[in-house]
Amino acid sequence: MSPARRAARRRALTWTAAVGVPVLVGAAILVPVAASGATDLPDKTPAELLAFAAASDVTALSGTVEQSSDLGLPDLGSLAGSTDDGASAADADDLLELVTGSHTAKVYLSGDSARVQVLDQLGERNVYVDGASDQAWFVDSETRTATQLSFPDARQHDTAPTDTTLPTPEAMLDQALAKLDETTDVTVGADGRVAGRDVYELVLTPRSQDTLVGELRFAIDGETGVALSASVTARGASDPAFSVGFTQVDFSAPDASVFAFTPGDDVQVTQKDIALPDGDHAKKPADATAPTVFGTGWSAVAELPSRGSGALADLDPSQSAMLNSVTTAVDGGRVLQTSLLSVVLTDDGRVLVGAVPADRLVEAAQTGS
To answer: Any transmembrane segments, and where (predicted)?
Structure first.
């Protein structure tokens, strides 16, 4: 198999949807690697396990994925639907669901076709992606709405609608491997089982003591090299702050009918054309300013430039109340602290972000270093 074809298949395996809809799957049950004395896979060094995972070329699967987030966020329940703008309210509610909600999802993949079926208590949401026709559907059974998305430039840019990754185990692994450098220790943990399959455990540990991230763990299928689960644990913690993984998986190709969708007469349909960027060369606005980065590796801090109107003093009362309910006042701004990430919003409109303690961001905001 050619490197280009393998790369395309790995992109498809992340069941991604460049549809701009937050369909992160989730559930309240963690999916750790269960160490098993009966599991004894052939030994691999860290380098061999990295190469094995990177070479995975699975093109078909179906299964159930569960995810849990325990980021130590303040109570965000009061923010749901708190904006007067309908679209903004929906986006805000989706974001709250993303970081605090509890969901289970069914995922299906076969070549260029993919489907993510997010199961809610009162209904379900589906994303259908057809890479062959450069089209996708986002369907909400509760609201009886469907959005048909077309990607007219996908063939021209050699980019299928499955290029923008969701935080699945495979997507998280790809991101980690792409950024792997001397700032990270790589080790192999104990063999175990995930979703009824024998797995290796790949462990990535930041060498810096200044980061909030303690370790990342990936369960790598012993036969296919696919990441079946992934977790991120905060420094000093015993349980993951974020975990996503399969509880059931089948590597045979799903039936073609799984990927078909025809809206009923009672479904309100909206059609949209989506312009895709040209691979890694997406055009940026002429006046775009790159973030300023202080430090390197896991302890790096990124400062986004002020947009002028983004100053805290310019917020209306409802926006200020919303912000104050989830952040803490610090000298020169406000801070949102989670177990894995800190965000500082300065009085003059700058935003600083990093996987570091909040006081490091405040220092960077005040000293510029």
So the answer is: 12-35
Summarised one tens digit per residue, pLDDT across range 223-236 is 999 999 999 999 99
Q: What is the CB neighbour count within 10 angstroms for residue 108?
A: 21
Measure the CA–CA gap between 335 and 31, rounded to whole angstroms.
31
The fold adopted by the segment(s) 3-34+55-178+236-273 is outer membrane lipoprotein receptor (LolB), chain A (2.50.20)
Low-confidence ranges of the chain (pLDDT < 70): 1-37, 73-102, 121-122, 152-167, 275-288, 307-316, 319
Domain 292-367 has CATH 2.30.40: no
For residue 109, what are its two tokens? Answer: 């993949």
Q: ∠ CA 117-178-293 to the nearest 5 degrees?
A: 105
Q: First and final CA of the chain: distance in angstroms?
A: 47
- Return the number of other C-beta atoms located less than 10 Å from residue 293's C-beta: 12
Compute the C-alpha angle 271/273/277, nearest 5°: 155
Distance CA 219, CA 208 (A): 24
Taking the C-alpha atoms of residue 172 and residue 22, their distance in angstroms, rounded to an integer, is 16
Rounded Cα gap, residues 19 and 234, in angstroms: 31
Report the 3 state secondary structure along 292-348: EEECCHHHCEEEECCCCCCCHHHCCHHHHHHHHHHCEEECCEEEEECCCCEEEEECC
- pLDDT tens, 135-165? 899 999 889 999 998 876 654 444 444 433 3
- Residue 326 C-alpha from the chain's centroid: 22
Residues of the chain with CATH 2.50.20: 3-34+55-178+236-273
Where does CATH 3.30.310 sit in the chain? Answer: 292-367
User: Residue 63 pairs with which residues in a beta bridge?
Assistant: 107, 249
pLDDT at 19: 36
